[in-house]
Give the backbone structure.
Amino acid sequence: MSGIVARSMELFFFIPHARSLKEKRMVARSLIEKARRRFNASIAEVDTQELHQMLTVGVAVVSGDAAHARAMLEEIVRAMEEMADAELVSVRYE
């Protein structure tokens, strides 16, 4: 039996131009959909839903190799930082 490894992280974005939850949701929806299309990962808004300038995105990947799972998360961080119409403030790996 091969080992299955699951890794996850939370990304915290600041959206300075968002003046409402509607504006935040537009940024969130665009970022999450682009990342889902590009990567085979589970990606969703997981916290700070009530704050219009903060976006918390959770990402989970599954692999047969721990190093591969970690590399996938690193690649997702770089891509989401480039794709986002927001500032990546921090990343927390689980």
Summary: The chain has a mean pLDDT of 93. The chain is about 40% helix and 35% strand. Residues 9 and 93 are 4 Å apart (CA to CA). Residues 5-93 form a domain with the Alpha-Beta Plaits fold (CATH 3.30.70.1120).
